[in-house]
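Records of this kind hold a single protein each, on a pair of labelled lines. Below, a sample record shows both lines together.
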Amino acid sequence: RTMTKRLIRLAAPADAAELARLNARFNGEGLTSPEEVRAALESNGSEVVAVCEADGKLAGFACARVARSVCYRRPTAEITELYVEPPFRREGIARELVALLEARCKALGAEEFTILTGKDNAPAQALYRALGYVECGEVMFAKTTGA
């Protein structure tokens, strides 16, 4: 397979249907609709969403959120999602998506970045290490309170 054209860019509201499709492949069906994705892209100023457009379709995406806290001088950024469709993997797309997120979050004042990934996701862990991320020894807890 040869890609005719590849573009790493920020997501736009017009990408909502494709982003919803990719999110369903990555995180599971029914988590968000194209309309909800469009609304978030139009109104969520604390989130940065990067996409890879390849051959006229989205081949991957990555999301980061920038947060300010009264406890710290500078905002921090967390890369919350990173997904590349299987046929497009190992072509540097994930690296380029992370680089765009980092640049945009730095422009918003963030100096520290965190990424959470599955403890069994060796390919993602290898990528993050190659990008200069180190394990921080934190323990993650989660709780769902329902809708």
Notes: The first helix runs from residue 16 to 27. The radius of gyration is 16 Å.
